Amino acid sequence: MNTFIMANPQKCIGCKACEIACAVAHLDVSVSTAGATALPFIPRMNLVRTPYITMPIQCRQCDDAPCANICAEGAIIHRNGINIVDDDKCIGCKKCMVACPFGMIDIRPKISNGELESQNGLRIQTAEGEQAKEVFVTYKCDLCSGRKGGPACIEVCPAGAFTTMDHSQIITDIRKKRLAAALDIANNQKK
To answer: Which domains does the chain have, with CATH numbers?
Structure first.
């Protein structure tokens, strides 16, 4: 079972610190203050607001991942319990984006060495003339793979709304639910 991050909507205060930390954690340049870079703001998770609830939504790292199953290039791979995107294989076809049942995949410009990467052949016509077109690739939560402190969203959340869910945590939660259900049934039969 893959590890994933779960957010508690009862704790989320909607501050967006998680989105900012996520975007900064995936830059390959140092950022000390907001607005210090001209690179696009690309968080790999999204804070959803409704009149009733505010909650961060992230990739569930599906075990039978529809995004990976539909990828003709094999760009979404499973490594160390995480489904990650191999930017060098991704062609930005958007099939994974359509297949994701949670809407957690974005197609955004590829950034390499702090610069937007441009295509070799395809050009676009603009008011300023013909220019190189950016390379677009898939962006999705990778649990901040390779980041020393683990997922940035968990680290910065002032409300403690995030929990890392792994196989043992899920089994523990299921056992607690089963015990609570059994006790509830037993208590109701005594009445």
So the answer is: 1-58+141-191 (3.30.70.20), 62-100+107-140 (3.30.70.20)
Write out the DSSP string of 50-112: -SS-EEEE-----TT-HHHHH-TT--EEEETTEEEE-TTT-----HHHHH-TT---EEEE-EE
Amino acid at the residue 172: T
pTM: 0.80
Tokens representing 153?
A: 């969203």
Residues 6 or more apart whose Cβ sits within 8 Å of residue 59:
4, 44, 45, 83, 100, 102, 104, 105, 140, 141, 142
Kindly report the number of other CB atoms within 10 A of residue 47's CB atom. Answer: 18
Contact 95, 71 (CB under 8 A): yes
The rounded radius of gyration (Å) of the Cα atoms in the chain is: 20
46 membership: H or E segment, kind and range: strand 46-49
Q: What is the pLDDT of residues 105-158, one digit of tens each?
A: 999 999 887 788 999 888 999 899 999 899 999 999 999 998 998 999 999 999
* 167-173 long-range contacts, CB within 8 A, separation 24+: 167/1, 167/3, 170/1
* In contact, 5 and 151? CB cutoff 8 Å: yes
Q: Which two tokens stand for residue 122?
A: 């395809």
Residues 90-102 as b/e (b if ≥16 CB within 10 A, e otherwise) read bebbebbbebbee
